[in-house]
Amino acid sequence: MLRTALNTPDEFTVTFELVPRQGFDRKQVDPLLDFAQQAKEDGRIKALSITDNPGGNAALAPVAIGTELVRIGIEPLIHFSLKDKNRNQIGSHIYLYQRLRLRSLLVMGGDFPNPGYYGRGKPVYDLDSIQVLRLLKDMENGRYPDRTGTRQKQYPAPDILKGCVVSPFKATEAEQVWQYVKLLHKIRAGADFVVTQVGFDVRKFEELTEFLDEQGIKIPLLANVFIPTLPLARALSVGKIPGILLSEKLAERMEAEAAAGADNARLDRAALMVSCLKKCGYRGVHLGGVNLLFQDIAYVLDRVEQLDREGLPDNADYDFPVPGTWYYFQHRLSDNKEKKAVEPLAPGTVLGTTWMHKLGHTLFFTDQYVTGRLFARFCLFCAKGRYRFNFLLRLEKTIKRQMYDCQMCGECTLSHSAFLCPQWHCPKRLVNGPCGGSNQGRCEVHPDRLCFWVRVYNRLDNRTTLASLVGLPHLPPKDWHREKTSSWVNFFSDQLNQLKEQDE
After folding, report:
1. Sign of CA dihedral 211, 251, 16, 312
2. How far apart, in Å, are the Cα atoms of 374 and each of 381, 399, 428, 486?
3. How remote is the C-alpha of 467 from its chain's centroid?
4. Under 8 Å between Cβ of 349 and 233
5. Which segments in the chain show pLDDT lower than 70?
6. Which partner from 3, 222, 285, 320 sits 20 to 30 angstroms from 193, CA to CA?
């Protein structure tokens, strides 16, 4: 089992990514099953992951291939993408996977939907990856809290191995810091193992293991070693694939290899990378690529075994960092010994009026001052009368629409995102940190804009530290029954109900 392999210290776990296509007949499915059968007979691959509508395009559901893998006798690792599922569908899928003995999930937000039938489908993103990991953990503990977190329904507890993803390959400080912060929240929420995003920078791979060591966290890490074709490498090098960076140097190298007819060069490079990562603290690798047959992967694994015996050659060239990349650790040489120092963070680079919003929040939404206590009484008073409530609702909508582009979601999170509204400014409406799709600080969906969470980082207090960001609690899912209602009334009503429950 994948769980056993990941938790066996001396075992280096290998998984491989299968990509179902747009179709369901034998032409689309048989190559995947043939690969699975050969992997089962070979024995070195412990699990086959199955993508879930990759690239935001509709494809055969991973459960279809997953059940076939169970029949073949090799463990499926289901990509659990959240872009197309609300919380009811998420719960339904969890029960379905348990029924079908699909017990390993890789939880991720997923690529933004691409145009399809009559245009682009409406993205869901009802829950983010942190919230789904918490949901799975709560279900394991026999809990299923309601909005207040107090009354609980009892449901069958699933037995699921929960994976999450992280990108250590971001080029800018804001993107990378948020990736590490969100990773720590995912681990806190119950992730059992971590798979990296695709990358080609060895120092970034090493940095992730160093970062977790610094945090005192021991969790199985799988390094994503991706084997691109030349056309895909060209697309990656110009940023056409969300969240993946490939240096021009590597694209040029592959151009030269293609001209020279070096067909196995990309496989040899992958083997060198795997052999290197085995020495960096990774518990295994997650292999993937385009147009790969099982004999290609067998070749890579054979080469890795050879390199383990003989060692990496002195002229091995498998490290391709992107120029200008920001690193969390500075590497400095002193007395011929490499020392690593944390790169000082530099948030709050954009000067603005955030301090005014903070002051207003403190004055009116805390009981620190009499203004907050009076405003709470005023809102609760207005809530008891129809005309008073409508007046308050119009007042809130007018003020917040002008100041924040408020969408009246009913559960305001402005104070958690430097007083920028994720319901308006983030296409995925993420409230607990960014997705992995940004590229050079730019939004996955709107590349002409900065990523919403990069903008948030640039507005933070310049004394903000990683520890202070990690110390913030993650936000629970929104109750969409409250949409278009007063978040002011909801906020103070929740506070009042909490006080009543404490008294009881």
Report:
1. negative
2. 10, 19, 36, 17
3. 20
4. no
5. 147-156, 331-339, 503-504
6. 320
3-state class of 224 per DSSP? Answer: strand
Q: How far apart are CA 176 and CA 172, in angstroms?
A: 6
Tell which residue, 440, 439, 420, has the closest CA to residue 430.
420
Q: What are the structure tokens assigned to 125, written together?
A: 């993103």
CB 125 within 8 A of CB 82: yes
Domains of the chain: 2-310 (3.20.20.220), 354-503 (no CATH)
> What tokens appear for 7 in the block?
């938790």
What pLDDT score does 143 carry?
76
Q: Find out whether 16 and 49 touch, Cβ atoms under 8 Å.
A: yes
What's the pLDDT at 142?
A: 80
Q: How far apart are CA 499 and CA 504, in angstroms?
A: 9
Cα-based distances in Å from 410 to 16, 363, 439: 43, 20, 31
- Backbone torsions φ then ψ of 130, nearest 5 degrees: -65, -45
From the list 491, 254, 502, the residue with the least C-alpha distance to 376 is 491
Distance from C-alpha of 74 to C-alpha of 37, rounded to nearest angstrom: 8
Q: What pLDDT sits at residue 222? A: 98
Element (H, E) at 178: helix 173-189
The first and second tokens of residue 2, run together, are 């994948």
Give yes or no for a contact between 434 and 453, defined as CB atoms under 8 angstroms apart. yes
Q: What is the model's pLDDT at position 476?
A: 93
User: What integer pLDDT is reported at residue 352 of this predicted model?
Assistant: 79
Residues 14, 59, 53, CA angle at the centre, nearest 5°?
Answer: 60
Residue type, 115: P
Query: What's residue 155's pLDDT?
Result: 63
pLDDT value, residue 154: 63
- pLDDT of 335 reads 44
The pLDDT tens digits of the residues spanning 205-251 come to: 999 999 999 999 999 999 999 999 999 999 999 988 889 999 999 99
Q: Under DSSP, is residue 473 helix (H, G, I), strand (E, B) or coil?
A: coil
pLDDT on residue 330: 80
Q: Which 3 state secondary structure label does DSSP give 277? A: helix
User: What pLDDT was estimated at residue 342?
Assistant: 79
The residue type at 164: C
SS3 of 228-250: the string is CCHHHHHHHHCCCCCCCCCCHHH
Task: Select from 183, 193, 187 the least CA-distant residue to 161.
Answer: 193
d(CA 73, CA 75): 7
What φ, ψ does residue 227 adopt, rounded to 5°? Answer: -115, 90
DSSP element (H, E) containing 4: helix 2-6
Nearest to 136 by CA among 90, 86, 76, 205: 90
